[in-house]
Amino acid sequence: METIPYDKRSGKIWFNGENVDWGSAQIHILSHGLHYASCVFEGERVYDGEIFKLEEHTERLFYSAKRMGINIPYTKKEINDASKQIIAVQKVKNGYVRPVVWRGSEMMAISAQKNKINVAIATWEWGSYFDPKLKLEGIRLDISSWRRPSPQSVPWDTKASGLYMICTLSKHEAESKGYTDSLMLDHEGNIAEATGANIFFKNSEKELHTPTPDSFLDGITRRCVIEIAKSKGIKVIERKIKPDEMKNFVGCFLTGTAAEVTPVSQIGKYKFEVCNLVRELSDSYQNLVRKKTAA
Questions:
Q1: Mean pLDDT, to the nearest integer, of 18-25?
Q2: Of 204, 216, 219, 264, which has the maximum CB count within 10 A?
Q3: End-to-end alpha-carbon separation of the chain, Å?
Q4: In sequence order, what DSSP letters do the residues of the chain get, joined into one string?
Q5: Whole-structure pTM value
Q6: Domains and CATH numbers, the chain
Q7: What is the C-alpha to C-alpha distance for residues 130 and 113, in angstroms, rounded to an integer?
Q8: 212 phi and psi, to 5 degrees?
Q9: Is 159 considered catalytic here?
Q10: b/e map of 146-176 (b: 16 or more CB within 10 Å)?
Protein backbone atom coordinates (compact mmCIF):
# COMPACT_ATOMS: atom_id res chain seq x y z
CA MET A 1 0.00 0.00 0.00
CA GLU A 2 1.39 3.38 -1.03
CA THR A 3 1.94 5.83 1.81
CA ILE A 4 1.99 9.60 1.41
CA PRO A 5 5.41 10.95 2.48
CA TYR A 6 5.11 12.76 5.79
CA ASP A 7 6.36 16.06 4.39
CA LYS A 8 3.71 15.95 1.65
CA ARG A 9 0.62 15.60 3.84
CA SER A 10 -2.00 18.27 4.40
CA GLY A 11 -3.71 19.95 7.31
CA LYS A 12 -2.23 21.57 10.39
CA ILE A 13 0.56 20.90 12.89
CA TRP A 14 0.68 22.56 16.31
CA PHE A 15 4.03 24.38 16.22
CA ASN A 16 5.27 26.57 19.08
CA GLY A 17 1.76 27.51 20.16
CA GLU A 18 0.11 27.95 16.77
CA ASN A 19 -1.59 25.70 14.24
CA VAL A 20 0.49 26.11 11.08
CA ASP A 21 0.05 24.60 7.63
CA TRP A 22 1.54 21.13 7.44
CA GLY A 23 4.05 22.09 4.77
CA SER A 24 5.15 25.19 6.68
CA ALA A 25 6.12 23.31 9.85
CA GLN A 26 9.84 23.47 9.12
CA ILE A 27 13.09 23.88 11.04
CA HIS A 28 16.48 25.18 9.98
CA ILE A 29 19.09 22.74 8.70
CA LEU A 30 21.43 23.84 11.51
CA SER A 31 19.06 23.00 14.35
CA HIS A 32 20.87 21.54 17.33
CA GLY A 33 18.28 18.79 17.65
CA LEU A 34 19.21 17.47 14.21
CA HIS A 35 23.00 17.61 14.63
CA TYR A 36 23.38 16.65 18.27
CA ALA A 37 20.15 14.72 18.99
CA SER A 38 19.04 17.19 21.69
CA CYS A 39 15.48 16.11 21.04
CA VAL A 40 12.81 14.16 22.94
CA PHE A 41 9.44 12.92 21.78
CA GLU A 42 6.39 10.81 22.54
CA GLY A 43 4.22 8.41 20.56
CA GLU A 44 0.53 8.29 21.42
CA ARG A 45 -2.47 6.42 20.02
CA VAL A 46 -5.88 7.89 19.25
CA TYR A 47 -8.80 5.49 19.67
CA ASP A 48 -12.30 6.61 18.72
CA GLY A 49 -11.21 10.24 18.82
CA GLU A 50 -9.46 10.18 22.22
CA ILE A 51 -5.76 9.94 23.06
CA PHE A 52 -5.10 6.91 25.25
CA LYS A 53 -3.14 7.69 28.44
CA LEU A 54 -2.48 11.27 27.30
CA GLU A 55 -1.55 12.54 30.77
CA GLU A 56 0.95 9.70 31.30
CA HIS A 57 2.58 10.37 27.94
CA THR A 58 2.85 14.08 28.61
CA GLU A 59 4.30 13.38 32.04
CA ARG A 60 6.97 11.20 30.42
CA LEU A 61 7.67 13.85 27.78
CA PHE A 62 8.42 16.39 30.50
CA TYR A 63 10.52 13.85 32.41
CA SER A 64 12.54 13.06 29.29
CA ALA A 65 13.09 16.76 28.63
CA LYS A 66 14.23 17.41 32.18
CA ARG A 67 16.71 14.53 32.00
CA MET A 68 18.09 16.08 28.81
CA GLY A 69 18.42 19.51 30.41
CA ILE A 70 15.55 20.88 28.33
CA ASN A 71 12.98 23.21 29.87
CA ILE A 72 9.73 22.92 27.91
CA PRO A 73 8.24 26.43 27.58
CA TYR A 74 4.67 25.21 28.08
CA THR A 75 2.77 23.64 30.95
CA LYS A 76 1.63 20.02 30.88
CA LYS A 77 -1.96 21.25 30.62
CA GLU A 78 -1.07 23.39 27.60
CA ILE A 79 0.50 20.39 25.90
CA ASN A 80 -2.50 18.19 26.74
CA ASP A 81 -4.93 20.83 25.46
CA ALA A 82 -2.89 21.34 22.28
CA SER A 83 -2.82 17.58 21.67
CA LYS A 84 -6.59 17.31 21.99
CA GLN A 85 -7.07 20.38 19.81
CA ILE A 86 -4.87 19.18 16.96
CA ILE A 87 -6.57 15.78 16.68
CA ALA A 88 -9.89 17.64 16.47
CA VAL A 89 -8.52 19.99 13.80
CA GLN A 90 -7.13 17.05 11.82
CA LYS A 91 -10.29 15.00 12.44
CA VAL A 92 -8.22 12.00 13.54
CA LYS A 93 -10.41 9.21 14.90
CA ASN A 94 -8.00 6.28 15.06
CA GLY A 95 -4.42 7.33 14.63
CA TYR A 96 -1.16 8.51 16.09
CA VAL A 97 0.11 11.64 17.84
CA ARG A 98 3.75 12.73 17.83
CA PRO A 99 4.76 15.51 20.28
CA VAL A 100 8.40 16.47 19.77
CA VAL A 101 10.68 18.90 21.63
CA TRP A 102 14.07 20.04 20.32
CA ARG A 103 16.77 22.68 20.62
CA GLY A 104 16.87 25.20 17.79
CA SER A 105 19.60 26.82 15.70
CA GLU A 106 20.77 29.75 17.86
CA MET A 107 24.04 27.97 18.74
CA MET A 108 25.82 25.30 16.70
CA ALA A 109 28.29 23.42 18.87
CA ILE A 110 28.18 20.90 21.71
CA SER A 111 27.01 23.58 24.11
CA ALA A 112 23.51 24.85 23.46
CA GLN A 113 22.70 26.94 26.51
CA LYS A 114 21.10 29.77 24.49
CA ASN A 115 19.12 27.70 22.02
CA LYS A 116 15.38 28.17 21.80
CA ILE A 117 13.30 25.17 22.85
CA ASN A 118 10.82 24.30 20.12
CA VAL A 119 7.72 22.15 20.52
CA ALA A 120 5.48 20.63 17.86
CA ILE A 121 2.59 18.17 17.88
CA ALA A 122 1.56 16.32 14.71
CA THR A 123 -1.19 13.74 14.27
CA TRP A 124 -2.44 11.47 11.50
CA GLU A 125 -4.71 8.51 10.87
CA TRP A 126 -2.75 5.30 11.36
CA GLY A 127 -3.62 1.64 11.55
CA SER A 128 -1.59 -1.33 12.73
CA TYR A 129 2.18 -0.88 13.22
CA PHE A 130 2.77 -4.42 11.98
CA ASP A 131 0.96 -6.09 9.08
CA PRO A 132 -2.43 -7.31 10.46
CA LYS A 133 -1.88 -10.77 8.93
CA LEU A 134 1.52 -11.04 10.59
CA LYS A 135 -0.02 -10.00 13.90
CA LEU A 136 -2.41 -12.96 13.69
CA GLU A 137 0.34 -15.42 12.79
CA GLY A 138 3.00 -13.88 15.01
CA ILE A 139 5.94 -11.81 13.79
CA ARG A 140 9.51 -13.09 13.44
CA LEU A 141 12.41 -11.36 15.19
CA ASP A 142 16.11 -11.42 14.50
CA ILE A 143 18.58 -11.03 17.38
CA SER A 144 20.41 -7.74 16.97
CA SER A 145 24.15 -7.37 16.98
CA TRP A 146 23.61 -4.03 18.74
CA ARG A 147 22.90 -3.79 22.47
CA ARG A 148 21.10 -1.36 24.73
CA PRO A 149 23.79 0.81 26.33
CA SER A 150 24.80 0.75 29.98
CA PRO A 151 22.51 2.94 32.12
CA GLN A 152 25.64 4.82 33.25
CA SER A 153 26.33 5.94 29.66
CA VAL A 154 23.00 7.40 28.48
CA PRO A 155 19.69 8.77 29.86
CA TRP A 156 18.19 5.33 29.24
CA ASP A 157 14.79 6.04 30.81
CA THR A 158 13.89 8.78 28.32
CA LYS A 159 12.39 8.87 24.84
CA ALA A 160 15.39 10.75 23.47
CA SER A 161 15.89 10.62 19.72
CA GLY A 162 19.57 9.63 19.85
CA LEU A 163 18.77 6.40 21.69
CA TYR A 164 16.82 5.12 18.68
CA MET A 165 19.61 5.08 16.11
CA ILE A 166 20.72 1.59 17.13
CA CYS A 167 17.05 0.56 16.91
CA THR A 168 16.94 1.70 13.29
CA LEU A 169 20.18 -0.14 12.57
CA SER A 170 18.81 -3.27 14.25
CA LYS A 171 15.48 -3.15 12.40
CA HIS A 172 17.16 -2.59 9.03
CA GLU A 173 19.49 -5.50 9.71
CA ALA A 174 16.53 -7.71 10.61
CA GLU A 175 14.47 -6.69 7.58
CA SER A 176 17.39 -7.45 5.27
CA LYS A 177 17.25 -11.03 6.56
CA GLY A 178 13.48 -11.36 6.09
CA TYR A 179 12.49 -10.71 9.72
CA THR A 180 9.94 -8.12 10.83
CA ASP A 181 11.80 -6.74 13.84
CA SER A 182 14.76 -7.42 16.09
CA LEU A 183 15.34 -8.44 19.70
CA MET A 184 17.91 -6.31 21.50
CA LEU A 185 20.01 -7.49 24.42
CA ASP A 186 21.20 -5.20 27.19
CA HIS A 187 24.82 -4.29 27.90
CA GLU A 188 25.23 -7.45 30.01
CA GLY A 189 23.82 -9.77 27.36
CA ASN A 190 20.37 -10.19 28.91
CA ILE A 191 17.17 -9.89 26.90
CA ALA A 192 16.03 -6.25 26.86
CA GLU A 193 13.34 -5.34 24.31
CA ALA A 194 12.50 -5.13 20.62
CA THR A 195 13.44 -2.02 18.63
CA GLY A 196 10.37 -0.08 19.76
CA ALA A 197 8.44 -2.35 22.10
CA ASN A 198 8.76 -4.28 25.35
CA ILE A 199 8.74 -8.07 25.37
CA PHE A 200 6.99 -10.80 27.39
CA PHE A 201 7.38 -14.58 27.46
CA LYS A 202 4.89 -17.25 28.58
CA ASN A 203 5.99 -20.55 30.11
CA SER A 204 4.09 -23.84 30.33
CA GLU A 205 2.71 -22.87 33.76
CA LYS A 206 0.94 -19.86 32.17
CA GLU A 207 3.25 -17.43 33.94
CA LEU A 208 4.52 -14.32 32.18
CA HIS A 209 8.21 -13.42 32.37
CA THR A 210 9.45 -10.01 31.26
CA PRO A 211 12.85 -8.29 31.54
CA THR A 212 13.46 -5.84 34.38
CA PRO A 213 13.40 -2.35 32.78
CA ASP A 214 16.69 -1.05 34.15
CA SER A 215 18.36 -0.02 30.88
CA PHE A 216 15.33 0.58 28.66
CA LEU A 217 11.89 2.20 28.89
CA ASP A 218 9.26 0.77 31.21
CA GLY A 219 6.58 1.29 28.59
CA ILE A 220 3.13 2.67 29.33
CA THR A 221 1.56 -0.20 27.38
CA ARG A 222 3.82 -2.64 29.23
CA ARG A 223 2.45 -1.43 32.55
CA CYS A 224 -1.14 -1.63 31.27
CA VAL A 225 -0.68 -5.23 30.13
CA ILE A 226 0.88 -6.21 33.46
CA GLU A 227 -2.18 -4.77 35.23
CA ILE A 228 -4.52 -6.64 32.87
CA ALA A 229 -2.64 -9.91 33.40
CA LYS A 230 -2.66 -9.58 37.19
CA SER A 231 -6.39 -8.80 37.14
CA LYS A 232 -6.87 -12.16 35.42
CA GLY A 233 -4.83 -13.98 38.07
CA ILE A 234 -1.83 -14.42 35.78
CA LYS A 235 1.50 -14.31 37.59
CA VAL A 236 3.92 -11.77 36.11
CA ILE A 237 7.62 -12.14 36.93
CA GLU A 238 10.03 -9.29 36.17
CA ARG A 239 13.63 -10.50 36.12
CA LYS A 240 16.86 -10.79 34.16
CA ILE A 241 16.36 -13.25 31.28
CA LYS A 242 19.23 -14.86 29.40
CA PRO A 243 18.80 -15.50 25.65
CA ASP A 244 19.20 -19.28 26.00
CA GLU A 245 16.19 -19.32 28.35
CA MET A 246 13.96 -18.73 25.31
CA LYS A 247 14.02 -22.49 24.69
CA ASN A 248 11.95 -22.90 27.87
CA PHE A 249 9.13 -20.53 26.84
CA VAL A 250 6.10 -21.52 24.77
CA GLY A 251 4.70 -18.07 23.98
CA CYS A 252 5.98 -14.56 23.34
CA PHE A 253 4.54 -11.13 22.56
CA LEU A 254 5.50 -7.47 22.28
CA THR A 255 3.80 -4.46 23.85
CA GLY A 256 3.98 -0.82 22.89
CA THR A 257 1.90 2.19 21.94
CA ALA A 258 2.52 1.46 18.26
CA ALA A 259 2.78 -2.34 18.55
CA GLU A 260 -0.15 -2.63 21.01
CA VAL A 261 -0.08 -6.39 21.87
CA THR A 262 1.67 -8.26 19.05
CA PRO A 263 2.32 -12.04 19.15
CA VAL A 264 5.80 -13.32 18.25
CA SER A 265 6.20 -16.68 16.49
CA GLN A 266 9.99 -16.80 16.27
CA ILE A 267 13.15 -15.14 17.62
CA GLY A 268 16.26 -16.39 15.86
CA LYS A 269 16.20 -20.17 16.23
CA TYR A 270 13.54 -20.14 18.96
CA LYS A 271 9.89 -20.70 18.02
CA PHE A 272 6.72 -19.88 19.94
CA GLU A 273 3.00 -20.61 19.75
CA VAL A 274 0.48 -17.83 19.17
CA CYS A 275 -1.47 -19.09 22.16
CA ASN A 276 -4.92 -18.22 23.53
CA LEU A 277 -3.44 -16.33 26.47
CA VAL A 278 -1.72 -13.85 24.15
CA ARG A 279 -4.91 -13.41 22.11
CA GLU A 280 -6.90 -12.88 25.30
CA LEU A 281 -4.49 -10.21 26.54
CA SER A 282 -4.63 -8.51 23.14
CA ASP A 283 -8.45 -8.51 23.20
CA SER A 284 -8.50 -7.17 26.76
CA TYR A 285 -6.10 -4.39 25.81
CA GLN A 286 -8.30 -3.40 22.88
CA ASN A 287 -11.30 -3.35 25.20
CA LEU A 288 -9.38 -1.08 27.56
CA VAL A 289 -8.24 1.44 24.96
CA ARG A 290 -11.67 1.59 23.36
CA LYS A 291 -13.43 1.66 26.73
CA LYS A 292 -15.41 -1.48 26.07
CA THR A 293 -16.55 -3.97 28.67
CA ALA A 294 -14.84 -7.30 28.24
CA ALA A 295 -17.17 -10.17 27.46
A1: 97
A2: 264
A3: 34
A4: -----GGG--SEEEETTEEEEGGG----TT-HHHHH--EEE--EEEETTEETTHHHHHHHHHHHHHHTT---SS-HHHHHHHHHHHHHHTT-SSEEEEEEEEE-SS--SS--TTPPEEEEEEEEE---SS-HHHHHH-EEEEEEEEEPPPTTTS-TTS-BGGGGHHHHHHHHHHHHTT-SEEEEE-TTS-EEEESSSEEEEE-TTS-EEEE--SSS---HHHHHHHHHHHHTT--EEEE---GGGGGG-SEEEEEETTTEEEEEEEETTEE-B--HHHHHHHHHHHHHHTTPPP-
A5: 0.95
A6: 10-125 (3.30.470.10), 132-289 (3.20.10.10)
A7: 40
A8: -70, 125
A9: yes
A10: bbbeeeeeebbbbbbbbbbebbeebbebbee
Residue 292 confidence (pLDDT): 66
Average pLDDT, integer, range 134-152:
94
- Which pairs with CB-CB distance under 8 Å and at least 24 residues apart come from 203-208? 203/248, 203/249, 203/250, 204/250, 206/234, 206/235, 206/277, 207/234, 207/235, 207/236, 207/237, 208/234, 208/235, 208/236, 208/237
- Angle at 252 (CA atoms; ends 250, 258), nearest 5 degrees: 170
- Contact yes or no for 179/170 (Cβ under 8 A): no
Instruction: Look at strands 12-15 and 44-47 and give their pairing.
Output: unpaired
Task: Please pick, among 12, 53, 135, 159, the residue that the annotation labels catalytic.
Answer: 159
C-alpha–C-alpha distance, residues 101 and 72, integer Å? 8
- What's the pLDDT band for 202 if we cut at 50, 70, 90? very high
d(CA 200, CA 183): 12
